[in-house]
Amino acid sequence: MTGLRDPGGVRARPLHLLPVGARAYARPVRAHGVAERSGPAVVAADGDPLVADPAEFAPAHPCPGAAEEPTFRVRSDGERLRLTGCVDTFGAERLAAMLAATPVEGSVVVLDLAGLEFADAAATRTVARWVQRLHAAAVTVHVAGAPRFFVRVWHLLAFDQVSPAVFGERPG
Amino acid sequence: MTAAPAAASGFRHGTFFYRDEEAFLAGLLPFVRDGLAAGQAVVVAEPRPRLDLLRDALGDDAADVELLDMAEIGANPGRIIAVWHDAVDRHVESGRGLRGVGEPAFAGRRPAELAECRLHELLLNEAFDGGPTWDLLCPYDERRLPAEVCAAARAGHPYAFGSAGPQAVADVDPAALAELFGEPLPTPGTVLRGEFGPGDVPAVRRTVAHFAGSCGLSRERVEDLGLAACELATNSIRHGGGAGTVAMWTQPGAAVVQFTDAGRLADPLTGRRRPTLGQTGGRGLYLVHQLCDLVQIRSNDAGTTVRLTTWL
Question: Are B201 and B230 in contact (CB under 8 A)?
Answer without folding.
Answer: yes
